[in-house]
Amino acid sequence: MLCKYKDKMHLCMLMVLLLQLLFRTAAQSCAKSCGQKINTCSCHSTCESLRDCCADYKHFCLDIEPHSGSLLGGTDFKILNATFEQNINLTCRFNSEILTEGYVDESGVGHCITPLLYESGWISFEVSTDGVSFDRSGRWLSVHHSKLGPDYKIILVNATQWQYYGTPDVSGDLKMTWIPSLIKAERVNIELWGYNETGEAYSLNWEAEWKYLYTVGRDVPNSGVFSFTPQIAEKPYFLWDLGIIRVSPSTKPDGAQNVNALWSEEHAIAWHLEEAFRKDSAGWALEKCINWDREEKAMPSFLTEITDCPCTLAQARADTGRFHTDYGCDMEAGSICVYHPGAVHCVRAIQGSPEYGAGQQCCYDSSGAQVLTGDSMGGSTPDRGHDWGSPPYKKPPRVPGFSHWKYDVISFYYCCLWSDNCRYYFSHRPSSDCRTYRPPRVAAVLGDPHFMTFDGVSFTFNGKGEYTLVYSSDRELSVQGRTEPVRFENGSLAKATRLSSVAMREKDSDVIEVRLRGRGDELQVLMNQQVLSFSEQRWIDLSGVFVFSPKATNVTVMFPSGTGLEVRAGDGVMTLTVLLPHDLQNHTLGLLGTMNDDPEYDLSASNGALISLNSSALDIFTYCAGWAVTNDTSLFTYDSTYLLNEYYYAPKHDPSFIPIFSVTEDPEDPLLEPVLKLCAGEGAWFCKYDALNMRSLDQGNATLLAFRTQASTKRDLEPVRSCGWLSPPKHGQKEGTLYLEGSKVTFWCHRGYSLYGSDERTCQADGEWSGEETHCVAERRGNIKMTR
Q: Signal peptide position in this chain (predicted)?
């Protein structure tokens, strides 16, 4: 034996220890282990802030730049913090199945080219240096093509000219521009690609297809500008009427897949259609419209399963859990509502319908009233294909953007824009009015912090810890809040806390956490404990949840159920607004109450006991402490020594932190007079409490503004009664396009017809129209004419 003699014992032990050390070192590699925590080091995303990363973490768990791009592919991203030998065969694999060819530049930096994907959201990718072992990994954000900024796609100059080319009075050269540096080549090809969806509708063989058609410009300088005179395409290419322009290196074969490229917006490619279109575009389009009408009649109806539109613009903008601004018709961005003339703002239902993945679009005029297709070509329209796609994406009609164009937009060109036959289109895409719309319920946490429940109860809780704000076992929804002591400007701790982080999950969705970053007003968003960056995209599709962050102080989180959470930061304090759909009635617990229209149940303890609304501040404090989470149920991230010591290893409710339960209005206090002057009207008590407790008028004012914003949101979401659309009588007309309670609609008949029924009807509080249905009947000799 090796250790037989004593003089060899020390050498034996040294060799054993050395072998153990070598084995442990090899086992601590992050190769194929990203996201995991190993015994003595970590490959998890929290390791950098906790400073316990394995030595090769950056080498195998990849950071990239840029981290997002079009789902059409073609983006060239570089791998950061790693160098490669230039003679290696770099291969990139997306979604564990799609291979693309990478390369190493002269600086030793590795690059991948993203592939064509029929889905949006985070896509996993792996990298191999030998084509066999894919031991490095990262993630790529695949983005809905229309949501990309203009710098990352080809711009069709005068897009209307492109899409109406060949119709009366539209001709001339077409021009496009792009940023040359995004294509790694001196010379490029300009290609036309067409989109279609083939196979039997709603069957397993229904497939999406992007097809290379032909090259418009070959081997042209990569100058960022290209113009051409359109020619009628050869058959069968002119049969394609929906397409996109691609710019790619001229060294690549025509139609090569997954190469460095830029893409234009999808558009109606009128500019290459057959001679028949240029001779009689309206007649050509009518024939297409009638064919589409026939196809629609053969497909199952999706109209019964889509959600109803909000009744007013105020409701539509406030219901952020279910609706989001349509980028093509956004009053704040000043966009022109091309497809909805007369509207000033449109929203889309965030979630596609359950069976068919259909979408809903709701449009409103300058008065805030919903625009209906029965009254206007610019009315609200449902969509067979949701513009933003619908999980699980990939297959028709759920492909983001392109399914919508296939079934809802190109047909609008046929029936409404290239010809005057909207009656066909609107027979299949009628506006959904708001008779069954039910606004969400609202609750909030703001200021020092103060809680406003779904049923209108308000109280203050200044505990330190992590607590359940909303919980629904039936809907598998959990929203948790973390509070921390507030610091005065001199660094000392106040006897008050603030909401510093909110974590949430619905069913098996990604866990989202939104937290204050340091002592400033910037919010940080985490997905499954990994920081999300909004530097490139404002909207991110995740698994079972959507996140929108237009700026660092605003984050909105939306779940498929219609639950929405708005997090705002200002003056060092976080404000949370929670919106719950009506079907969660009687299914909630937590500090934001039992949503059942009875305030008496809002202070329900975690053990089921009821606390009186007249309880003392101390009793309410004790009640709230009972809603502390546990480490087993916590959704929070603990990625710093401070968070570990203060919240993970410490009690979830800190019993040693005793706040000030009330403030006194001392006449000798020099702050009292300006506080009383500031804190008046709605929210005055909360304002005074925070200003005096924190010794800050700014803090009091921030609380007052947050309270009034919350109150305004609640008013905007008050139920509104609708009586539904009224049609004009046959052989007559009507005046009035408002159908809410108190609205009036008047009717009259064309010359030669008499009016029977009511010439004016009023929408009543019970949701019914007054009077009788109106008819226009052909006059007989001797009848009195009733015309206008």
A: 1-27
Tokens of 578: 């929670």
Question: 153, 264 in Cβ contact below 8 A?
Answer: yes
| 75, 76, 142, 146 from 64: Cα distances, Å | 12, 10, 14, 22
Q: Using CA atoms, how far apart are residues 437 and 427, in angstroms rounded to an integer?
A: 22
- Answer yes or no: is pLDDT of 28 > 80: yes
667 preceded by a cis bond (ω within 30 of 0): no
For the CA atoms of 652, 658, 661, 665, the dihedral, rounded to the nearest 10 degrees, stands at -140
Q: 136-143 and 68-70: which strand pairing?
A: parallel
Q: How far apart are CA 471 and CA 587, in angstroms?
A: 8
Q: How far apart are CA 240 and CA 192, in angstroms?
A: 10
Helix (H, G, I), strand (E, B) or coil at 527: strand
Q: In angstroms, rounded to a whole number, what is the distance separating the alpha carbons of residues 383 and 505? A: 28
Amino acid at 657: F
* Sequence letter at residue 590: G
Q: Which two three-digit tokens encode residue 237?
A: 């290419």
Distance CA 575, CA 466 (A): 16
What are the pLDDT digits (tens) for 248-294? 999 999 999 999 999 999 999 999 999 999 999 999 999 999 999 99
Count CA atoms closer than 13 A to 441's CA, side-chain side.
22
- With b for 16 or more beta-carbon neighbours within 10 A and e for fewer, the 625-641 pattern comes to bebbbeeeebbbbbbee
In one letter, which amino acid is 486? V
Structure tokens at 114: 């993203």
The 10s digit of each residue's pLDDT in 84-101 is 998 899 999 999 999 999
- Ordered DSSP codes for 236-291: TGGG--EEEEEEEETTSPTT-SS-S-EE---EE-GGG--HHHHH-HHHHHHHHHHH
**For all residues of the chain together, what is the average pLDDT?**
93
* 83's tokens: 């160098």
* Among the listed residues 738, 741, 743, 739, the one whose alpha carbon sits nearest the alpha carbon of residue 720: 741
DSSP classification of residue 653: B
| CB neighbour list of residue 708: distance below 8 Å, 6 or more residues apart | 682, 683
- The strand pair at 121-128 and 775-778 is best described as unpaired
> Hey, what amino acid is at 222?
N
409 DSSP assignment: I
Side-chain-facing half-sphere of 359: CA atoms under 13 Å: 31
Closest CA to 214 of 235, 187, 183: 235
Which residues face 267 on adjacent strands? 243
DSSP secondary-structure letter at 66? S
Count of all residues that appear for the chain in the document = 788
Other CB atoms within a 10 A radius of the CB of residue 173 amount to: 10
Asked if residue 187 lies in contact with residue 224, where contact means CB atoms within 8 angstroms, the answer is no
Instruction: Using CB atoms within 10 Å of the CB of residue 13, give its burial: 0 to 12 exposed, 13 to 18 middle, 19+ buried.
Output: exposed
Question: How does pLDDT run across 100-136, given as a tens digit for each residue?
Answer: 999 999 999 999 999 999 999 999 999 999 999 999 9
509-519 residue pLDDT tens: 999 999 999 77
CB-side exposure of 780: number of CA atoms within 13 Å?
A: 0
Q: Which of 416, 496, 428 is nearest to 462 (CA)?
A: 496
Rg over CA atoms, the chain: 31
Residues 6+ apart with CB under 8 A from 643: 636, 637
Alpha-carbon gap, residue 369 to 313, rounded angstroms: 6
Type of residue at 721:
R
Furthest C-alpha separation in the chain? 134
